[in-house]
Amino acid sequence: MKRLNSQLQQDGAPLELILLIRTLLAGCKEISFRVSQGALAGVLGSTLSENVQGETQKKLDVISNQILKDTLRESGYVKAISSEEEENVVPCNPEGNYLVSFDPLDGSSNTEINSLIGTIFSIAHAPQWMKPDDPSAFLQPGTQMVAAGYVLYGPSTMLAMTTGRGTHLYTLDKTHGGFLVTNANVQIPEQTSEFAINTSNQRHWEAPIQQYVSDLIAGSEGPRKKDYNMRWVAAMVGDIHRVLCRGGIFMYPFDKRNPKIPGKLRLLYEANPMAFLIEQAGGLASTGEGRIMEVMPHEIHQRVPTLLGSKEEIEACLAYYSKDKNKKAVAS
Ligand code: FDP
Questions:
Q1: Which atom of ligand 1 lies nearest, measured to the CA of 239?
Q2: For 168-212, how does the pLDDT look when each residue is reduced to its tens digit (9 = 90+)?
Q3: Where does ligand 1 bind, in terms of residues with CB under 6 Å?
């Protein structure tokens, strides 16, 4: 089986990027170990502090964030970090050539129930002019990413990663501590009959997604003329992993509750890296209005509506948005 290094070399990744990825993954292996210890590691449960988004931090979030921060800062490859758990950019080596954004532990409420969780990351070049504490360099569209991926802490520890030459799945071989390629050049089936959305938010969705999901639920008796099944891991990393493995559509759409917070998921370290993985595997990643990877961020913790998955199903969903737009244009 091919090792991580060989795959990265084959994909033409520069040496420094390979070394950075290996450093990041060393941190993830430590997180994987801590996570697998569960309550025995004495790290589960909530701390008293809240993170910048006002969510209660679980201790594992804090620990995972610290592990990644320390490992990346010490590496010398990184100029600055943005993390879900850090209000501001974390300055690192002024001579570093890369910017790393991460959600150290996505789906952290799943820690309480010993279910899927993971680390999501994206890597971009650090501009030379940038000072390490300057957040503006992070405000570039996802098309500028040089690598992205996630490490999934499940029954096995898996890595999904792309450097722009396909999406590959790796499995951590705990006997020798390395990631081995277990599925190269993943191709997401273009058609699907599986969808994932938190339907408890239905009343807050806009008209196109209301209609789309209601037509999915209508199944073979509705306009889509086939039966759909629903799956919801409640951790984006788990839901996207399923989509990469067997297709599907994952949605966290625009939410009318607060127009200033248009979606739940964060652009830099959730939506963008997943969009890169999905596109590289032949799927589509949209906000409903346009390509996720072309969204120009205006702040590091920006949220976006997300529709990710099988090509034809995303296209079918986007047709509802176009129809709605046309209807509004005719009415005005
Ligand atoms: P979590 O808050 O548990 O870290 O990052 C946001 C996220 O998880 C996603 O992984 C997940 O898809 C979503 O939130 C689930 O949130 P809801 O239960 O509010 O739908």
A1: 12
A2: 999 999 999 999 999 999 999 999 999 999 999 999 999 999 999
A3: 106-109, 198, 234-236, 264-265, 270
Separation of 258 CA from ligand 1 center, angstroms? 17
Nearest CA to ligand 1 atom 17: 234
Position in ligand 1 atom list of the atom nearest CA 198 = 20
**Distance, first Cα to last Cα, the chain:** 60
User: How many residues are listed for the chain in this entry?
Assistant: 332
Three-point CA angle 251, 252, 254, nearest 5°: 120
**pLDDT tens for residues 153-173?**
999 999 999 999 999 999 999
Distance CA 267, CA 128 (A): 24
Q: Which atom of ligand 1 is nearest to the CA of 235?
A: 10
> Could you tell me the CA-to-CA distances from 266 to 179, 215, 226, 295, 305 in Å, in that order?
27, 28, 33, 12, 9
Structure tokens at 140: 């570039």
